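Dear colleague,

Thank you for sharing your sequence with our group. We've completed the structure prediction you requested, and as agreed, I am returning the results in plain text so they can be pasted directly into your records. Please verify that the sequence below matches your submission; if there's any discrepancy, let me know and we will rerun it promptly.
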Amino acid sequence: MPTQVPVATGTAYYQQHNTAPDLVRTLFEGDGVTPINLTGATITIRVGFQRDMHYYSPYTPIVDAGPCAIVGPATDGVVSWSPLAGDLSIPGSFHFRFAITFGSGAVQTVPAHTYETLVITTPIGGFEAL
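Please find the predicted structure tokens below.
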């Protein structure tokens, strides 16, 4: 199955209600070069409205703590998120971040200094309610 901008950054695009492809990213330390060692860690994703969407709270998530999988060796820092039915039901521009909970209980947010962008487009013909 194809993936969205694998092991890179950049805007991820989905059509409304899609559940594929997986969103794949490499999670880096603050230096932006060293992959985070995910051994023994649990990773989740949070997707929320961008701040400029004034009719929703800027902190309202459409996905809150969506489970992610580690792809390949945990030392490579690569994770994958598979959208579930309903996760991508609202079209628009969104921000997302990953939360890593290490075996020690420590939590790290990636990226810590910014957000990545996810855009959900409408199908031809406009908004589609399921």
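Summary note from our side: The domain at 3-121 is CATH 2.60.40.3350 (Immunoglobulin-like).

Kind regards,
the structure core
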